[in-house]
Design a protein that fits this description.
187 residues, mainly beta, Immunoglobulin-like, 3-stranded antiparallel β-sheet, 1 helix, 12 strands, DUF4232, DUF4232 domain-containing protein
Amino acid sequence: MAALLSLAGCTSPEILPDWEPEVARPITVTTTPSSVPSSTPPSCDTGLRFTEVGGDSAMGLRIRGIEVVNCGAQPLELNGYPQVKLLDEQWQQLDVQILDGSGGIASVEGFDTPPQPITLQPGERAKSAFMWKNTNTSIDPPLVGRHVDIAAVPGGTWQPLVPMPPGDDFHVDLGSTGRMGVRAWYR
């Protein structure tokens, strides 16, 4: 055994009489956050505010919830799907298919429920969601969206979807599928 220890370059405390075990010293780690979460809600210059409200990613299927708040003074009529543009890191629009409902990506309860008319009074909110798969079937670079522009209705004002917490980035990792489903507005 001693020969094996000497071959391995190991020694035991008995061989070195002045050996003392190393004393653990406390380590202080200081970090500086890259972005400080704000307790102030995102602005509402257009009368609407779109925010991310959570998500799920299991087995390659991704779902991200979104919410619109009517922070204006007039009622808002919704009857359809949010209008969505998926953008890369440089805010350039990606060439992807934005599909109504699941678009056959996966079967998720409620995702293919047909649109219903919704009237949002000032201060009220409605929800929607995005669905995609992170699947790679080619050697082409994967499609990754880092920003989302959204409008409540066709012809509506485009504005950025605010990630939660504010200051974070999105990571819509479409792989090579190039398809994202959008759920109709609902309450």
